[in-house]
Amino acid sequence: MKYIKQFTIILAITFIGEGLNHWIPLPIPGSIYGMILLYVSLYFGLIKLSWIKETGKFLIDIMPLMFIPAGVGLMDSWGILQPVWVPFFVITCISTVAVMAVSGKVTQCLVKPSLEDEEEKINGKKEGKL
Which helix (H) or strand (E) holds 121? Predict the structure, then answer.
């Protein structure tokens, strides 16, 4: 019963995100609205992490299964994709490297100040004790 309740919370937020996709005239997928809504709800405590944690872990564990239909769709569309597979492959590789680089730099920029604060606290405590 716990998993059904947790899945219902996640599903409700997903549906609200899809609703926002139809109401807000921006080219943003409903799933992104849902993720932002879930993040904001978790951040402000409207939803507790314990309310959705186990089901969220389960959904992440089975995520590879969600890519099977996309892979089958690509295989089914091979006749259409065959003449342009090289540009798709190059674009996919370049965009993957770009996303990894940007994500890494953003993470470094976000983590560095918190690491410096912790280092200052540690050094301040050590200097204060001397």
Answer: helix 85-129
- Residue 53's contacts (CB-CB under 8 Å, 6 or more residues apart) are 6
What would the two tokens of residue 46 be?
Answer: 């409207």
Q: What angle do CA 90, 91, 94 make, to 5 degrees?
A: 85
What tokens does 92 get?
């996919």
Mean pLDDT of 9-20: 95
Closest C-alpha to 38, from 25, 22, 53: 53
pTM value?
A: 0.59
- Compute and round to an integer the Cα radius of gyration of the chain: 22
CA angle 124, 125, 127 (to 5 degrees): 65
